[in-house]
Amino acid sequence: MSFFPSNSQIQTQNADSRFQATVLVGAPSFPDAIAWSDENLIAVASGHLVTILNPAALPFGPRGLITIKNSQPFPIGVVDRQEPCVRSISWSPVGLAPNAGCLLAVCTTQGFVKLYRSPYCDFCAEWIEVANVSAKLYDYLQSINFGEAWASSSKQQDVNEHEIEPEIDYDPVKQKSSNKIVRASKSKVKPAKEIPENSTLPLITADQYASRTAMLSTLAVAWSPMLHSLSKTCSVPQDGLSMSLLAVGGKSGKVSVWRIPIPECYSVDQSRVPETVALIGILQAHNSWITAIGWALLDSDSSNPKVLLATASTDGSVRIWLGNNEKLLKSSEPSDTSFSLLQEVASDAAPVFVLSVIVPTKSPDKIHLAAGKGSGSFELWICNISSQNFDKIGTYDAHGQTVTGLAWAFDGQSLYSCSQDNVVRCWILSGSSLCEVPIPSNTPRLRNSTDLPEEFVSCFGLAVSPGNLVIAWVRNTDVEQLNPMYEARTQKAIVEFFWTGGQQVDVSPNNSLHFDIEAIPGFSEELVYWESNFLWSLKQYEMQDKPLVVWDIVTALLAFNHSKPEYVEEVLIKWLSISYLGSQTGIPAETVLLNVSRSCSIVTSRQLHLLNIICRRVILSEMKGDEINSKLLNLKGVHGAEKEKRSLWINLLLNSEKELRERLVGFTFSALLSQMPTSAPNSPPGKWFPVGFAQMEQWIELNHDHVHGQLKVLASEVGKRDRRFKSSKCTSAETCSYCLASVPFESPDVAICSGKGHKLVRCSISMEICPTTPTWFCTCCHRRASKPAPATLFATPGLPFNFKSLAASPLLDTSLKPLCPFCGILLQRLQPDFLLSASPT
Q1: Within a 13 Å sphere around the CA of 208, how many CA atoms are in the beta-carbon half?
Q2: CA 765 – CA 751 distance, rounded (Å)
Q3: What is the distance between the alpha carbons of residues 126 and 143, in angstroms, rounded to a whole number?
Q4: Domain ranges of the chain
């Protein structure tokens, strides 16, 4: 199948169709130059820089940077070192960074792979290096002598006479005068007599040098999804049992696999290096350069999910490997048997440069695999792992130059492709056929991008937002068309953002969320597609294992709300009817809001979190978080039916948060009762001990007529237990951090001291007064927390809920996650507005 782009397709989209854009000072040079993280940050590989963007703060908001500096080569020979440039980037899953965010793996043209985390101190934009994977790989290869077998003992002895443990940080001039290998381009060997007696470098041959260089020259990196090893007594992953794998491919055709577990504990004010970056496998995946890597996790069997690794090479081959979960999660030594080959899928010798892999939710035993080639075509495969069927859907000659980006969206039903020929295309997969469709026009307006160039020469990658409603791609500008005095220096490339919510895609299994155009009279056909995609995107976040990052949903709803508020209400009421009431019949909005408000006690905590975000960020977006928390809600200027409806939304939010607070208190009391009197309050790092129950008892007393009956029973049982068990930290007497005056308990969110009236913030998890040191902060509800809460709190099933059943679960053994108990989003350090921070909502 062939496609010939028109002039309009070459330009792809103009400034009228994108809703925002931002400029870069460096130009990408390699495929897949842009990546979107699970915490809503965007990384762009642009020359010797990696630029970190917050899409919510564009086009001119703060950004982070990783500056790639010239690194000293490993001591295996003398080579001409080129200027460093970023070749490959990949975000880890949420939870691997010391602040519970994502780590960024960066691979450079010099063959180095390093891991970075966001800054942990104020007034810093440069990201922090936390691990040098290449150095660890070199140490391992050196320990096994690079896997080389010596032909004779005499040759071994001759080499050992000159071989001393080399230092990584060495003098290149000294190396040049002491190594048998001179510059690679000359391929000559110096006589042994010219080697100084004090040489600290190994004596190697040209073949050894070429082999070692290939082993250490990395080209591609990719993180796996989070892997969990569940204990027999707890269904929630425990410390040391949740991890991700980093695959690093190189010129040797080998892929090294590294295991990085979640940290023992998280912090907002410290930079902890990952405790363990362990090499667990080296796979000879291909016979030529590894150019692209992809991961997939088949969890059709929740008790034994399968890890799949896809690798691509310059020889045109693509191979799918099945991981041995037990070895990957528990092995302590590198193994070449961690993966077994399932299938090789390839049809020609054109090199493959990009891969995109997805496991559709509706088909958890299948993977959709797209492979982009240097010839401008891409291949599409659907692989059924359980039946071992690997069906090739087709080869699509979609582009005139190298395919530089492929990204799946809407659960594997939509595929986006881009190329160095500056063309971006959209494809819809229906059954076993793929057809091209136009990229949706821009419907909701946000802001106009001004003073940005409109002439581009190439596209070097694209990425889809977590909610799948936005696509971003990066394109290099045509320098010849720019003003050489200033534009050509500062506008080397541009990241553009486009809405995809209006895409016509049947993304719902069994058509359960599909609506005919007649279902919403008065709205255009594209708005019907928006509604269907809104509902699908909101629905996917009901899954507990998906991080709550709904920036694109909230942003689109806010944009629509300015021009079509009745449309936003229609979408949200239908969402509440389907997800919370189990019906999609035409129930009046007021009835839906009242019924959902009364049903808060029987829905999951994740559903309540999602509901709270929509209430705060969409319906009540003009109100400040502190106003809502203190119930100082001002409806001035709102009258009649609109005021009544707004009051219903406010009441829904307050009831939802009250239900979540009761669950938090009940969870804490249950954990306390399960540990009396054997446990001690001095729990090790990363373990949780219930605190704040003195404040919680007072909160129950203040709300005695409105709290759940089970909660009163638990509070009574706690009161009967040995009071000596309570630590001094958990007493009801609190003092002001500034004047040491007593602080009475009057509110679970704020406190006023009895001395000079200082306003203090209470921890959203323990209700205790927060310390003056940096604390966790929720960007949605603006609450703070001094310590994270256990993961069990956020993984509870649907209700009605029996608090006492928690007493039998190993609560102390569950990992702590810095998630907001009222919004469910990742907590972070409160940053000044001019510094980069993630915006999940």
Answers
A1: 21
A2: 15
A3: 34
A4: 50-216, 509-656, 684-829
